[in-house]
Design brief:
Blueprint: E1 10-14, E2 18-24, E3 35-36, E4 38-39, E5 44-48, E6 60-65, E7 72-75, E8 99-103
Parallel strand pairs: 1-8
Antiparallel strand pairs: 1-5, 2-3, 2-6, 4-5, 6-7
Amino acid sequence: MPEEIEQHSAILLSLPDAEAVCALGSFNNWSTVANPLHKLGSHVWEFQLPFPGFDLDRLSFFVIRRGARYGSVIEYRDIKPLTKPCHSNESESTSESQSEVAGESC
């Protein structure tokens, strides 16, 4: 996991069985509905960092999986980073200063 992520960066998660994903932490009073992630593809979810200097160590995601009655919490520090978005082509390059890809393998 990179030490710093520049402002206006996004975190991308690969969650193939997710129906809904929200970011939660002290920045939104641990609300499970205040900061929904934007779905980019069949299983890629995007979270825009809300402000410069955002503390990633206190970031978690509330995930509601298809068919589940309850959601579960995934802490950012427990997510294994990937090298590029799942929806990119082999020839495309991803700038780490613009985005960070994390989550499960595609």
